[in-house]
């Protein structure tokens, strides 16, 4: 199972990972699509959300030998306020290759 996904040189420890290949709607090219789940603590919240606001990433999945540019297709979190000490949120992220 994949344990780490690297987004723009930031390693993310994942709790769930799914990968498939799709046909990109705009380009017609075959591209990777990955879905991942990961936990974010209140200590990491600012850094992770700042990273995700970039929207475009160089994605590396070392265990799968993948390295590709991608954009966010879908993103959600289980909580809206991770500024409380000890809070942990479940993040869901879907990335599609460009």
List the SSEs and their pairings.
Elements: E1 4-7, E2 10-23, E3 30-41, H1 45-52, E4 56-61, E5 66-77, E6 88-97
Antiparallel strand pairs: 1-2, 1-4, 2-3, 3-6, 4-5, 5-6
Could you walk me through the main structural features you see in this protein, from its secondary elements to its overall organization?
This is DUF3219 domain-containing protein. It comes from Domibacillus iocasae. This protein has a 6-stranded antiparallel β-barrel with strand order 1-2-3-6-5-4. It has one domain: Elongation Factor Tu (Ef-tu), domain 3 (Beta Barrel), CATH 2.40.30. The protein contains 1 helix and 6 strands. 8% of the residues lie in helices and 59% in strands. It is globular and about 45 Å long. With 98 residues, the protein is mostly beta strands.
Features of the shown structure:
six-stranded antiparallel β-barrel, globular, 98 residues, 1 helix
Structural class of the secondary elements? mainly beta
- Biggest pleated sheet: 6 strands, antiparallel, barrel
Spatial strand arrangement across the major sheet: 1-2-3-6-5-4
Weakly predicted, low-confidence segments: none
Given the structure, what is the number of helices? 1
Strand content: over 45%
Distance between the termini: 24 Å
- Mean pLDDT rating: 93
Assembly form of the protein: single chain
Number of domain units: 1
Shape: globular
The share of residues in helices is under 10%
What is the fold-level CATH name, i.e. the topology?
Elongation Factor Tu (Ef-tu), domain 3
CATH class: Mainly Beta
Order of helices and strands: EEEHEEE
Quickly give the CATH architecture.
Answer: Beta Barrel
Number of strands: 6
From the alpha-carbon coordinates, what is the Rg to the nearest angstrom? 14 Å
Protein name: DUF3219 domain-containing protein
Organism: Domibacillus iocasae
């Amino acid at each position: 199972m994949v344990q780490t996904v690297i987004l723009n040189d930031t390693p993310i420890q994942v709790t769930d990972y799914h990968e498939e290949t799709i046909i990109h709607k705009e380009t017609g090219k075959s591209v990777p699509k990955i879905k991942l789940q990961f936990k974010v603590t209140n200590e990491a919240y600012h850094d992770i959300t700042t990273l995700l606001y970039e929207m475009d990433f160089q994605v590396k999945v070392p265990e799968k030998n993948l390295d590709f540019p991608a954009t966010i297709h879908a993103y959600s979190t289980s909580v809206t306020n991770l500024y409380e000490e000890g809070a942990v949120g479940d993040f869901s992220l879907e990335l599609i290759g460009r």
